[in-house]
Amino acid sequence: MVDQKTLAYINMYAVLGTLENLCELVPEASALLAGKKPISIGFDVKGGPSATLTFKNGKCRMEQGVKSCDIKLPFGSCEKFNGLIDGTVTPIPSKGFTHIGFLLKEFTSLTDILTRYMRPAPEALEDKDFFIASTSLMFYTISVAISQIANNDKVGRFTADHMVDGDVAFSIKGGPSATIRVNNHRLVTIKCAPASPRAVMEFSSIELARDLFDGKVNAVASIGAGTIEMKGMISMLDNLNRLLDRVALYLA
Description:
A hairpin with a 2-residue loop joins strand 6 and strand 7. It is built from ten helices and nine strands. 38% of the residues are buried. It is 47% helix and 21% strand. Helix 6 packs across helix 7. The protein is α+β, with helices and mostly antiparallel strands.
């Protein structure tokens, strides 16, 4: 069962948050922002998350809260915010009507590009650069979703309650890395490698990571074959695997 509040946190921080990485990895995305004045969009969800995306110098940055934003989009419930992500809800700004052009043009174009990379046509993946960027973006989305599930989903919270404090290095060999930080049974994802991890989970190649993300290969079998390296605090890794199983449910 998908919990709408958990899904809202995933859509905010894992999905919209991946716009940060999109602007870094895909020139087409950063080009949309070239020559534009800095602008920020705040998403305020009643009973759920709130965050601001700031677009500046071809880059994107997400921060929590909506205190300082040029455009503010309020949502009366987590369900309505989730509707924005699946395309069934059109929000009405409560602030920043003079910037509506950016919302309708550049921001919509950015999300369209993100969708194209996150749910690619099979033929698009035949291009090596597209394949690497698409898989890297999926990696960042999944790495952040892990923490949101641990903090908000009922089953995820139960799993997090059994995790000791420390950093897990979560990465693709030769590709993107993330830190899954556990502190007092709450998790946060940092989009860079940890200095001193207590545990490590690394996919041997970007091709393997893609097959895992697409459900074409089994994680347990890959661990047995040695194509997923796991070392360090085994209990942390066992629970991380349980959270990854929940990610598939929410991002399907």
